[in-house]
């Protein structure tokens, strides 16, 4: 895979992943708010979201995107 194709792949992958994450967050909040749920019922979903973000942040070094400077 050429450098150009790798760049396109990672840009599109990150763009799609961030779009899915933001859509998921909006759906989570709007569905719970629309149902009139209390904070106690919203907590498990928020906890899962927080754990997912923390897991992503502390992922192993071999799973991180490393920028290569020429």
Largest β-sheet summary? none
State the secondary-structure class. Answer: mainly alpha
**SS elements, strand count:** 0
H and E order: HH
- Give helix % range: over 70%
Query: Rg, please?
Result: 17 Å
The tally of structural domains comes to 1
Instruction: Tell me the span between the first and last alpha carbons.
Output: 17 Å
- Low-confidence segments, ≥5 residues, pLDDT <50? none
Percentage beta strand: under 5%
Number of DSSP helical runs: 2
- Mean pLDDT across residues: 82
Shape: elongated
Describe the protein.
With 70 residues, the protein is mainly α. It has one domain. It has helices at residues 3-34, 39-57. The longest helix is centred in the first third of the chain and has 32 residues, at 3-34. The chain starts with a helix and ends in a 13-residue tail after the last helix. The mean pLDDT is 82.
